[in-house]
Every structure is written in C-alpha cells, then in structure tokens.
Write a structure and sequence with these properties.
112 residues; 5 helices; membrane; 0% strand; DUF962 domain-containing protein; 67% helix; Mpo1-like; mainly alpha; transmembrane helix; transmembrane
Length: 112
C-alpha cells in the first residue's frame, strides 16, 4: 500500500490496532523504550540495547498473539514509529477513545 501522508497512514495504523490490548502492549513497549533511553543517558550506554527490544518486543507480541495481524513497522518503519508515538500521546492524555471515534472506528471490546 502506498500512503500519501502521515494522516492517511494513521487511519490505516489505527485499523491495525483495533483492540485495546494491542494498544496497551504498544504503550508499555514505548514507555519502557523511553525509560531505557533515559537510563542510557543517565547511567550507561548499555541501556540503549534494551530500547528496541522492549519497544518492538511488546509491539510484535501484540500483533502476533493479540491482534493477529502483520506488524506494519516492517513495511513502513518511519511512519509506524511516528504513529506509535502519536498513539502513545493520545493514550497518555486520555484522548485515544476520542481519536478512534473521530476516525469512525469502533474499539473492539475485550475482557483483557
């Protein structure tokens, strides 16, 4: 698929993250990546090795076992990373449900 803008990709990205559990796994991975990045600045550069493993590990797990789709970061690495931080921001501020409604998508209800 070819996307003309980040906004076009964002709508597709959110469709690939329809389950709340998938978004939570991404949030956790992004949060750990940020924490490990700051630990590398404050303590030791070795923490940098944990940045991609924590972020991508949580994301890939959620796509393979929760959402059951293919991680788009392999096809569109830059836009996926940008949208991951955008989703992280919406979740951090409590605006994710509003954004899902704006895009015209219904969140998939889950027990977990």
């Amino acid at each position: 698929m070819n996307f003309r803008s980040l906004e076009d990709f964002w709508a597709f990205y959110m469709n690939q993250h329809s389950k709340a559990s998938t978004r939570r796994w991404h949030f956790a991975g992004t949060l750990f990546s940020i924490l490990f990045f700051f630990c590398s600045l404050l303590f030791s550069w070795w923490f940098l090795l944990l940045v991609p493993f924590s972020g991508y590990g949580c994301a890939f797990y959620s796509h393979l076992f929760v959402e059951r789709n293919f991680p788009e970061t392999l096809r569109h690495p830059f836009w996926s990373l940008m949208c991951d931080f955008k989703m992280f921001g919406f979740m951090l501020t409590g605006n994710m449900d509003r954004e899902i409604k704006r895009l015209g998508k219904r969140p998939v209800l889950q027990v977990f």
